[in-house]
Design brief:
single chain; mainly alpha; 4 domains; two-stranded antiparallel ribbon; 2 strands
Amino acid sequence: MPKIFVCKVCGYVFAEELAELIDSGYQVYCERCGSPFNLKGVEFKPLTREVIEEFSKSSDSPHLEHGKIVEKDSRKRQDSSLEKIIQKLATFSYVPVLIVTIISLLFILRVIFLPNQVVQIILEQVILSIPGFIIVSYDVNRINPKIKEGKYQEILLDSFCMGILGCIFFGSGVLILLKGILILFAFILNSEKKQKPYMIGVYIKDSLNRFSGIGGLIIVFYACYGLIIAFSKLPVLNIFVIIGFLVPPILAIIVLIIDATFRESLDKKYKIEISEAVRTFIFGIIGCIFAGAGIFILLKGIIMFILSIVGPPEKPELKQKLKTPEEQTPPRGPKVENIYKKREVSERPSLIEKREEIEEQETEEIVHPRISEPEKREQVRKEIQRIEKEEEQEKQIEKKIPKEEPRKEEELKKEIELRLHESLLPVKNEKDKKLVKEYFTRIFNVLSKDIKQQIKDLKIPKKEKKEILKELAFLTKEQQIKYINNLVVLYQEDIPKKLIERIKTISKIKPEHYENILEQLKYMDADEQLQFIHYLEKNA
């Protein structure tokens, strides 16, 4: 059973290849939100190209059973042969469209024989040729580069839809249409079995989002070609007829321009708002008034509407559908209640032996006598009440007896500390008193002024501060300091200005993503912040 790793920030389930790297102790970043994957007690090694090549070689190597290659490898060979066919088609699929476009332009030479129809012939042939040039340009500059990179999910419907539009142009787009069908098959074969329907819907939405404007423009040119022929056959032309013919195409072009303005905001957007879906749907209906020019915008709106209703898969659903890594790989050794258990994430897997050793050491240091939490809290509460009463009595005695024999401060402190426990366990022997004192210091510790001040300085609600104070009562002084330092790092808000400036210098990161990156940096210490920024500078 392969181990499953889940991103603590966005709930993304890491792929098997990344899971192997995590299991081997290498640092991996989430493919969706970019946050580093962390485990308590594990120091991940930086990932290098050599390591990636080794893992890719090991994953691509054929597996043999009794001298026969297993089905997985035969499927890989089928995929590679299909990709080769697609790449070969990509080299010449646009040629028929280009030939027909050039021939349509050559038909302008008819003006030699029909000098009375010069304007009409030139308009007809130019408007008919423009869609051909658009189809060839889109196929060469957009579709073919993505095929070479193997990014079929980014052109999932581009080639298919462009092929249909090319087939209207005297059937010249048949090879582009065939290429689009093969791209769909390649995507289905290459996609994992765990590919979520929502993610497929996002790919379809992105493909239609990039293509809807260009596809609508091609339809407008086809329709305008028909309008010119219709104009030429009308016996009389007046203003109302001309307005009636010109308004629909102008309205369609306006809709296409508006759609283009929203294209960047929708590109690769994971969560879709229902308002965006309704807006796109309405624009699609308006665009369809003229020759169905808004058909691709309408389809995009329908897909977005479905995605907005379904919603992206969330973390609780992953917990229900998948077994947690702790269930799959149960920890070795006895079960020990850890005081930090409340603040740890439930998906934390115990994978590496190094981490198990560290956890065992931590638990050995933190293990206390086995007393239930309610009993401990009750003892602490009673002890605090008793101390307060004793302090009041001492103050009253000091008022009554103004002068008292001077005693050393250290002796007084020791007596008070030992007197603290005499009511619970009436022990007279000094050695036994020391043992009792050690026993009670394991149950609770008095907080120092510095720690109290640090908790006051934290910008969190009062309820959370009270909970932190209760938890600190059960820790030793060293553990209290470590715990407070971690909280200060967790709730810090100020990020160094140099890091912010370095993020802004990365050209490929858009300003709208700055807030998400800064939120991720708040949950990292200084070293992790530098590693994350360095990773963005190299790979973004």
